[in-house]
């Protein structure tokens, strides 16, 4: 490809103790945690709302807060769930602690928690670069409608999901040894007989929870007619008023590659319409259904995994190894979706697992933390931690650690982990 060189001067529009890049479940919770721990905090987000996959991609189940009925992901994430329940925007499915939510309520409650905590929001700002001086990232560079802007940062948290900031700063990435999990375009349909439809209910520990009846029938139909590749399907409806959120499309794609991402968006949009037609034709509860809207973006399950101070392995995770520097927990199964067919490999945990602080930091980087699905884990451990409750737990830990390091003026590698754990426990984390 032809290369051009561009130099430009960039106005610095703010200076912060902590700048969090990306406002998904990991990022917005990290920003609240950093601000509540006393740091002057900014949150950068390319959309005009937070929630990441939970809102922009209509991933409406938040998995999973409890193990055997016991809360394992406490603190700010659980406070958020309770506030959504109070606002009639979420339902806790017992005993697994899976949460079905209304994405509009999610956006509003998360935004309120951010503003109440004193976080400066920088929406409609796309992270496009950073300035690195030796072991520190001193500025993040944002593209805005007014042109490029910089934010000066004492500490930065990469919560872009894809590890964009890490990639820009030259953080080493792991080689993926398994195929990437597929992206999916979720959608909302109306006019469904929700009383007759089996919804997502994760009340059965150790069992999978997709709609087996619809899955079996679609597999049969695939032998005689054109049925696109599907997963699940998973149906979610908190108000049972005929509106149902559907997760069933999938296609293989590396969503970091713009050509593949474009192809995936177009393929999956065709598939959404094909599935709505199939559901209407073959399933009585969908007889009067109509497509209301698709998600703003195709949901991305997996891209980069950084190589951090510690790479959390599937073996450690499945054995629930208790790390001395544990800062968060995970209780969701190892949940691997196959890209090219309808299968999903689920391995259920024998105990709720632990995530060490060292998998949020990177050798050679003194002021960088990573809170989100791109944190330092192999593809097996990551296939569990990637879900929202555990990612929020990473955010809570990273935000608190960044604020404490900013206050003490230390490298993230010299963080006082006992003080960090004490603050997290005070907030309600069960580590
Ligand atoms: C189809 C699908 C189904 C899933 N099902 C479930 C489920 O049932 N239960 C569950 O709990 N989880 C589920 N997940 C997983 C979960 O939604 C994600 O792993 C989780 O949202 C990851 O959180 P994150 O904060 O790391 O990243 P994301 O949610 O991806 O958030 C990243 C945020 O950063 C922003 N951003 C990214 N790049 C930039 C940039 N360069 N500049 C500015 N902003 C940027 C994005 O706009 C976004 O807001 C599913 C995921 C998918 C795709």
From TrEMBL:
Highest taxon, organism lineage: Bacteria
Record key words, sorted: 4Fe-4S, Iron, Iron-sulfur, Metal-binding, Oxidoreductase
Tell me which InterPro entries the record gives: FAD/NAD-bd_sf, HdrA-like
Could you confirm whether the keyword Oxidoreductase appears in this record?
Answer: yes
Q: Which GO terms describe its molecular function?
A: 4 iron, 4 sulfur cluster binding; metal ion binding; oxidoreductase activity
The reply on keyword Iron is yes
In Swiss-Prot or TrEMBL terms, this protein is called: FAD-dependent oxidoreductase
């Amino acid at each position: 490809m032809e290369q051009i060189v561009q130099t430009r001067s960039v106005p610095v529009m703010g200076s912060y103790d902590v700048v969090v890049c990306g406002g998904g479940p990991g990022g917005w919770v990290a920003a609240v945690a950093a601000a509540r721990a006393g740091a002057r905090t900014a949150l950068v987000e390319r959309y005009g709302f937070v929630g990441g996959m939970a809102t922009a991609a209509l991933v409406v189940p938040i998995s999973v807060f409890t193990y055997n009925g016991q809360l394992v992901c406490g603190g700010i994430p659980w406070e958020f769930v309770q506030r959504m329940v109070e606002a009639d925007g979420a339902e806790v499915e017992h005993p697994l602690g899976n949460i079905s939510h209304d994405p509009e309520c999610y956006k509003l409650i998360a935004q309120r928690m951010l503003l109440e905590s004193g976080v400066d929001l920088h929406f409609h700002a796309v992270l496009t670069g950073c300035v690195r001086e030796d072991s520190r990232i001193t500025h993040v560079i944002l593209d805005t409608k007014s042109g490029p802007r910089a934010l000066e940062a004492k500490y930065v948290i990469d919560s872009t999901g894809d590890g964009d900031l890490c990639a820009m700063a030259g953080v080493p990435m792991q080689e993926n040894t398994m195929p990437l999990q597929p992206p999916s375009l979720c959608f909302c349909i109306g006019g469904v007989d929700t009383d007759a439809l089996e919804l997502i209910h994760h009340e059965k520990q150790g069992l999978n929870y997709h709609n087996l009846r619809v899955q079996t029938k679609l597999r049969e139909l695939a032998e005689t007619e054109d049925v696109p590749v599907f997963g699940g399907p998973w149906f979610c409806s908190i108000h049972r008023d005929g509106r149902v959120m559907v997760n069933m499309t999938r296609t293989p794609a590396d969503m970091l590659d713009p050509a593949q991402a474009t192809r995936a968006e177009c393929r999956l949009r065709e598939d959404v319409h094909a599935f709505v037609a199939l559901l209407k034709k073959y399933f009585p509860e969908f007889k009067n259904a109509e497509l209301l809207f698709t998600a703003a973006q195709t949901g991305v399950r997996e891209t980069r995994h950084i190589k951090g101070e510690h790479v959390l392995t599937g073996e450690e995770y499945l054995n629930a190894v208790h790390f001395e520097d544990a800062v968060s927990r995970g209780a969701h199964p190892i949940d691997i979706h196959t890209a090219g067919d309808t299968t999903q490999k689920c391995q259920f945990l024998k105990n709720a697992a632990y995530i060490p602080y060292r998998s949020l930091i990177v050798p050679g980087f003194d002021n960088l933390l990573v809170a989100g699905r791109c944190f330092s884990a192999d593809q097996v451990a990551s296939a569990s931690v990637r879900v929202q409750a555990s990612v929020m737990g990473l955010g809570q830990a990273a935000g608190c650690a960044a604020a404490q390091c900013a206050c003490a003026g230390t490298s993230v590698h010299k963080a006082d982990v006992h003080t960090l754990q004490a603050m997290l426990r005070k907030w309600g984390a069960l580590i």
